[in-house]
Design goal:
Strand order of the largest sheet: 1-2-3-7-6
Order of helices and strands: HEEEEEEEEEEEEEEEEEHEEEEEEE
CATH architecture of the largest domain: Sandwich
Structural class: mainly beta
Radius of gyration: 26 Å
Number of helices: 2
Shape: flat
Length: 357
């Protein structure tokens, strides 16, 4: 009897162990939910290097060309635990590091601080490749169309525009008598460098002419098709947003410019050291950040020349100026509000204390 009881207990223990092992085998990094926050950087992959050792899958060099900012780049290390994803419209799927190729458009979410160098170096918590099949690349002044869930990249302007959906369509149909003209409202998302902004575009009914909105020095001319017909329902798949993007009249712009000093560069300053002798990479990794009046939305990320000077054209309005603050950088000169007026120039010099002692 004791031998039978012992065998029964042994069988139960083995069964429990098998269930626990199977449960642990079902857990993997692919079960993690993708990050839903705004990416820290958006750009084109220009180089891929596989490593596959010491917990690192490899590195990718990601670059973008901003509006009158020159070229910026990050050398991104992709650890084993990073999420690597591909987005095609609203469908997101896992991919392997080997699927990353030069020329792909990538969104990068950082893990940990940016390491000062040129190019700047950072580890990735998540890498998402954007697949564009309907309107891959467009240029200023060219008409292009987006279906819901699709996006386009504005060549050389560091702008990605996505058509998120139709919020309302109350336009008075053709061949119908209406009390008012109605309107169609659509949502788009504009991504530039390391910022993202949702925007509602409204177009009145009884007109298929282009409506116009402005964003960050650009004019968006748009129309929503098809136009409603009496008695015919428009499905979500039929909606198309037609856009032409151009820069606003340059004569209406103002200028923000100034000189940036950075120091100390090293802990010990010798008598023969020149405080103005700053290595180019120190300027390359610092940026002048231009935010909207609320200080919440990034409008421009401005490169600093190797002599410390910067300059940027801005549409008239109020802005908050700051720096990207690498490490323990600080400055008593920013953040600061500035009022840009048409044809005017604002001078703002910035002294950055690196905190090195």
């Amino acid at each position: 009897m004791k031998r039978v009881l012992l065998c029964v207990l042994l069988v139960i223990a083995l069964a429990t162990l098998t269930v626990n092992c199977n449960s642990s085998d079902q857990t993997s990094t692919h079960d993690r939910m993708p990050l839903q926050t705004t990416p820290d950087f958006i750009g084109s992959i220009t180089r891929v290097e596989e490593v596959d050792k010491n917990g690192i899958l490899g590195t990718i060099l990601v670059e973008y060309t901003g509006i009158a900012l020159g070229t910026d780049k990050y050398l991104v290390t992709v650890p084993d635990e990073s999420l690597i994803l591909k987005q095609d419209g609203r469908i997101v799927s896992d991919i392997h590091f080997e699927s990353l190729k030069a020329g792909q458009q990538a969104r990068i979410w950082f893990s940990g601080p940016v390491r000062e160098s040129y190019p700047a170096q950072v580890d990735a918590a998540q890498v998402m490749i954007a697949e564009h099949k309907s309107a891959d690349e467009v240029r200023l002044g060219e008409e292009f169309s987006l279906a819901i869930g699709k996006s386009a990249w504005l060549v050389m302007e560091n702008l990605q525009i996505a058509f998120e959906g139709v919020i309302e369509d109350s336009r008075c149909p053709r061949n119908a008598t209406c009390v008012w003209e109605g309107k169609v409202s659509v949502e788009i998302e504009i991504m530039s460098g390391d910022s993202s902004h949702s925007m509602i575009l409204n177009q009145p009914g009884l007109s298929e002419q282009y409506s116009r909105e402005t964003y960050g020095g650009y004019e968006l001319a748009f129309t929503v098709r098809p136009y409603p017909e009496a008695g015919i329902r428009i499905s979500e798949q039929e909606y198309v947003l037609v856009l032409i993007i151009s820069k606003e009249d340059q004569q209406s712009m103002g200028i923000l410019r100034g000189h940036v000093t950075i120091g100390p560069i090293q802990p010990v300053v010798r008598p023969d050291d020149d405080p103005d002798d700053v290595p180019p990479k120190v300027y390359d990794t610092r940026k002048v950040m231009v935010y909207d009046e609320s200080g919440n939305m990034l409008m421009r990320q401005v490169n600093i020349g190797h002599e410390g000077y910067y300059s940027v054209e801005l549409a008239p309005g109020m802005y908050v100026i700051d720096i990207n603050r690498l490490g323990i950088d600080s400055s008593g000169d920013v953040p600061r509000k500035v009022d840009i007026i048409e044809g005017g120039t604002i001078e703002l010099d910035i002294d950055i204390d690196t905190g090195i002692r």
